[in-house]
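As agreed, record copied across for absentees:
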Amino acid sequence: MYEGPVQDLIDELGRLPGVGPKSAQRIAFHLLATEPADIERLQNALQKVKEGVVFCDVCGNVSAETTCRICRDPKRDLALVCVVEEPKDVQAIERTREFKGRYHVLGGALDPLSGVGPDQLRIRQLLNRIGTATNGIDISEVIIATDPNTEGEATATYLVRMLRDFPGLTVTRLASGLPMGGDLEFADELTLGRALSGRRSM
């Protein structure tokens, strides 16, 4: 539609997740009108993402150092590990302020159609963590917090199969059900069924 660098920028922005053609066009023209100093700050931030971000050696979360702040925190419960798909999921759980353990980031979910198998995920590292005590403390519970979709469920099922032979290890899955403020009549059958099967006493 446009010529030269503007169209190239729109094309590259349109490849980002959640950015459609119209959004890409708006961002491109916003950047055209932006001061050079602001563009330079954006360029520097993009460069640092590739050069300055490392992944935690312990959990696989994004970090500024070889061990992330959560794994370095001595107040965290070493016996409790929450398994998530991506680093963004760590932040989602942290916002609840309910979880006091540590994390393990898989780096995705099983998706054979896209060529993502167990070897492409950090499953072996998880098994090694469970089999090794940290500061004399063994992991006693693994919470599987993969997404409630086809890939996430397949990953959770695979992990349960891999973890069930560890003696004394409890494996749990995040409950799923009705959102707060929702109406029963608008809930789909799968969500409502899970809410029923995951009900708790009051």
